[in-house]
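Can anyone check this?
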Amino acid sequence: MSNVAAFELADAPKEIEINPVTINIGAEIGGVDLTKPLSSEAVKEIRAALLKWKVIFFHDQHLDHDQHLDFARQFGELTIGHAVFGNVEDYPEIYSIAKHRKANRYKTGAKMEKPWTGWHADITAAINPPAASILRGVNIPPYGGDTQFTNLVAAYNGLSDTLRGFVDTLRGVHKFAPPQGAESSEDYKEMLRTRGQESEHPLVRVHPETGERALYVSPSFLKEVVGLAPRESEQLLELLWEHAVRQDYTVRFRWKAGDIAFWDNRSTCHLAPSDIFQIDADRQLYRVTLVGDVPVGVDGRESSSLLGQPILAYAAE
């Protein structure tokens, strides 16, 4: 789908309602029932809205696991639930976003918290990170638990011409590793020994459908800039991360049971909530991801794999 065609469809929908949430990112989609198969026109319009607004939200869509999978398959092939952390029992393509799912990954101890801590695009350590993610809310706290998203295309465009020209030439190493100040548990270390992922991606990714340039700097996975000294790399990445999560590029989504967030993983980062651990209420969501392509930089050069295998479409035996 071309950039122009996608944006025209999003501006003049025929079967869906599009209500933008902020200037740069996020739109609520109405007029559809996701429990049923969509028309080809509705699929086209939803895809166009996703490309334009980067993340789209649906309300009051109480899907079960099978309906979640059926909806997602209309937009592409599905991956395994999570290449490293597994899947829901009996549903290989679904990953559980449970409140305490990270409880045993790191040893206890204070980690370094910075404004970009926790922000990430899904599984950018892989050579072909998912193209998109579709997250469904089931058990939602009465307050708190919001998810935030940022538009990496807007962030790239917000850089100075000089800095854009520099980062266009750079590549970075993405991998699974504990956040600064934390140490992996032995179980997590063993998991990474057998399922670890590490890749070298361009710092600026050309979107395969729109041709837009996105600042491809996933804070939780991007560990260093290739060819720079450690201090240079650290300073540049912190500048870019701080810039990428500026408020004017972001949207904050307040969940209710039955809500769905569908984001373009090639042009956004998101932040899971940490405030949910301050209350006793449960929080349970489920995610599926669509198979992605290998990122390509401004110079036309593809990413390269340093460890692990591509994330392929799940094929039932």
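Reply from J.R.: I decoded it. Helices lie at 3-11, 40-53, 65-73, 152-157, 161-167, 186-195, 230-244.
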